[in-house]
Each structure stands twice: as structure tokens, then as C-alpha cells.
Protein: MinD superfamily P-loop ATPase
Amino acid sequence: MRIAIASGKGGTGKTTVASNMALALANAGSCVTLADCDVEEPNLYLFLPGGEMGVEEVSVSVPAIDKPRCTYCGKCADFCKFNAISVFLGNALIFPGLCHSCGGCSLICPESAIKEVPRRVGIVKRSKPRDGVELITGVLDGGENSSVPVINAVKRGLPDSGIVIIDCAPGTSCNMVSAVRGCDYCMLVTEPTPFGLHDLSLARDVLVKMGIPCGVVINKSVGEDGIIEGYCSAQGLQVIGKIPYDEAIARAYSMGKAALYEDSNLARVFSCAYEKALKGAEKP
Structure:
């Protein structure tokens, strides 16, 4: 069972749901693989520190020009739609940060003067912070403009079976799509506000197009969640959990502590949400 935790915007509580659900399931005797695919701002390790097991670099392929062979015909620059190569006045420049690693320039070069070389864009860290939980964290290097290669590297390290929880990047960009793709179910975390509703609807629309079943977790609930519940009812979405607005939870988060240890009822909330996600993933 592979579950993605996503949201239409940042700060809604994705990390709270991902970390506490993993801990609730582990405390009940399950083994959980937790993947932090919010690679621009990974922070699950703050709540699950220690147990480091190893670090791997993530690289992408970028072109390198063999200048003695190059005739500066410019076909590579004409082919590249991302302006990663510029050829002018008998010179050629590569802009690695713009390259999408398609390899097309090396294929089209009539002189075979372009080869591909690796360029580091991030790392993947593995740890086992406690019994029953393995954490895989992707970290994008500073200044890089595409998270997708690091997200894909994290997902390549996930097991094919068992419980996998993926903390996605916020929003509905390619980062979120890459993290959610291939999951059995997606939990959309939102807040009962007009902004929360707007971004929830965007995320739900993306998942509908991807054909991934989803449900909603309302965070910071004060018991007046009609704005979200009305939308969910109209769209056929199930509200699979509610996390109360509680100062103790916010204080625990700010100190890097799991919320379920502050409120004994929360373990049940996260376990029930998981059970509902299981049933939601089984529906045709």
C-alpha cells in the first residue's frame, strides 16, 4: 500500500500527518517506509532523528563538448528547446542548469562531438530512527531548479510491498505530480478556510486527471468545517480524518515532537485515516 500525503499549499500539516501516521502504525506493530519527497524543504528528519544508514548522491546527465571535434554547426543549439546550449562565433557554451537531460543534443550532433557527463543535483539519505520505521529523505542541492530527479531517486529506493507513506511537495506542480504518480491513494491535507478550499480543489483536480483515489484530512479543525465538508460532499470526496486545532499540537510541532504523544486520541485518528485510505484504494 503506497499512500501519498499532499496538499494544495504549504503549511497545511502534511508533515504532521505523514510523521504521526507512520508512528501510529509502527506503535501498532507495522513496519513503515516513510519517504520525504518534499526535497526542497525536507523536514521529516526533525521529527524522526537518528539511525543514519547511508547517503547516496543523485546525478543527472548533461552534455560536454569535445571542442577539437566540434565544427560549431549549431545543430545542437537549434535542437535544444530549453536553451541549454549556445553556439556563436566559433564557440559553444553549455548551461547545465537549463539542461533536461534528454540526450537529444548528443544524438543529433553530426560530428559525435557531444558526450554526456554526470552532474550532482542532490542526495538521498536513509535512516532507521526507531523500530518499525525506515526514513528515506531526498535533499535537493541549493540553486537547482528541478526537484524531479531527486524525487525519482527517492522513489526508486522504496520497497515494492508493505506500507509506504510519501510526504509530497506542496502545490500542484511537477514536484507533486512526480511524488504522487504510482501511489494507490492520496490523502489531501487542508485547513477549513477559503484559501484551504481553493488549493484543495486544485489538488483534487490533478488527482482526478491522474486517476488516483483520494480523501481529505482536515487539519486545525475547530468543529466548524462546513466549507470543506460541503465541497467534499459535492465532489464525492470522503473526509477521512480531522485533527483538532490545539495549542499543544502546535507547540509539539515547533519543538520537533510527534503530536500523537501530546494527545492520546490522535493515534486513533491517524490509524482510522489509514484504514479508510485502504478501503478507498480498493474501490474500483
About this structure: Residues 194-210 form the longest helix (17 residues). The CA atoms of residues 172 and 206 lie 7 Å apart. The mean pLDDT is 94. The chain has ten helices and eleven strands.
